[in-house]
Amino acid sequence: MEIAFDESSPQKEILRAALKEFVEYGQKGARMQSIADRANVNKALLHYYFSNKQNLHREVLHRVFRMAINSIYQSIDEADSPENQIRGIIRAYFSLFRQNPAIPRLMLLELNANSSDFIEAFTQVFQADTVPFPQKMIQIIEDGIERGIFRPVNPRQALLSTLGTVAFYFIARPFARQVLSIENEDQFIEERLEHIQDLIFHGLIKE
Amino acid sequence: MEIAFDESSPQKEILRAALKEFVEYGQKGARMQSIADRANVNKALLHYYFSNKQNLHREVLHRVFRMAINSIYQSIDEADSPENQIRGIIRAYFSLFRQNPAIPRLMLLELNANSSDFIEAFTQVFQADTVPFPQKMIQIIEDGIERGIFRPVNPRQALLSTLGTVAFYFIARPFARQVLSIENEDQFIEERLEHIQDLIFHGLIKE
DNA sequence: CTCTTGTTTAACTAATTGGTTAAAATATAT
DNA sequence: ATATATTTTAACCAATTAGTTAAACAAGAG
Predict the structure, then answer these.
(1) Spacing of B45 CA from C11 C1' in Å
(2) Is A161–B168 a contact, with Cβ atoms under 8 angstroms apart?
């Protein structure tokens, strides 16, 4: 399943094509003609709908990040135990990245380029709620430590390690496929989620 | 400390400048004039030494990856226990990325772009030894499992999780700095290495 | 000092690129 | 059927870009 540009229209086709192009080449390296080719439309249509390259880029960032944060927030059940909430977040992120591998790649690409569009999109989408998502997860980890469920780890470090472990496979997927000679990728990915839950919780859970 | 272009000459300045430009914008998005500006040389000099943009890009990839793998191989002491070998690898990678944050970023950028230059550089550098590095690390993990030191984890998954945890901070550094409100980064980085060793080994060590 | 080699530069060329435009085609409303 | 609005296109323009070149400069050898 792809990014939720679920209607088929020239505008959606352009956004879908632009996402692919920006993920591969960044804003500067992306070519408008190449986006038009991928979307099977005339290049002028890109300008008709989005005015210019930067606007198109911004629109793609906003849509991608909004979708990302929406699905993560929906995964948190505050009535559940800290352990289960963390497990739920891991599952939600993993599922999101599995279905939309472009998301972590685009985010990191934009981080590399120090894109002001990224900062803007990030601020608007990821910190729109009263408690931004990363703070929410830190609170869950702190709560787990207080209750004696988790070992007294550094919550910010634990957040980084958890997110990094989840994201890394999808970020480094071509590298991983070649280096590890993965033959059945669907099976490998199922095993990956199991392994992450196992490793993270052996690393966090107080025994 | 930077990438080991340790001499100061126009050629080294160009390579250093090119690395920065390619890390930010990729090969297509990088500008030769911008590289020349960063290196404080005339643009024609880039072509004088490296012929064209693609050659310059290749040269940068080769040098970066060669340096990366050299320092990792030097960190492995086969006479040591599997646990200490893994600890050594973690330390070596962490130290390498700390000193050269461009390395993980460049690798992931090239992965995104499906660069044939990357595949070539990767093949030449990372798999030049009789036992390529990833296989070496898998062997160490398997050995640890056989000796009863490690839990019976999936070695390939464990390799991904270990490398991912180490690399992620440096890949996502601007994101992490903003999201986690890091004030004293040197201290945070010291804590990060401790945390990684702690988390990974609570996750791997059989108790 | 002179000659040769290597380095560096300003100016240039040709191709590429983002963006524009007027006209044609299509869709919609009456 | 006609008029209007929207969408789409081929062709175009100006700016940008990679790469080239002849000449000037610097370094080295004899």
Answers:
(1) 15
(2) yes
Preferred mutation among B103, B110, B156, B166 to probe A, highest tally of A CBs within 10 A? B156
Which of B72, B125, B157, B159 would best serve as a mutation to test chain A binding (most A beta carbons within 10 A)? B157
Residue A126 burial by CB count (10 A; 0-12/13-18/19+): exposed, middle or buried? Answer: buried
A47 touches strand C (CB under 7 A): yes
- The domains found in chain A, sorted by start residue, are 7-51 (1.10.10.60), 65-204 (1.10.357.10)
**CB–CB contact B24 A112 (8 Å):** yes
Which residues are CB-contacts of B19 (< 8 A; sequence separation ≥ 6)? B3, B60, B64, B102, B106
CA at B67, C1' at D26: how many angstroms apart?
Answer: 33
The pair of structure tokens assigned to B18 is 């090119």
Report the alpha-carbon distance of residue B50 to residue B57 in Å, rounded: 9
- Residue A156 identity: R
CB contact under 8 A, B203 and A202: yes
Taking only the tens place, the pLDDT of each residue in A85-139 is: 999 999 998 998 998 888 888 888 887 777 777 777 777 766 666 667 788 889 9
Interchain contact, A157 vs B192, CB within 8 Å: yes
ipTM summary value:
0.86
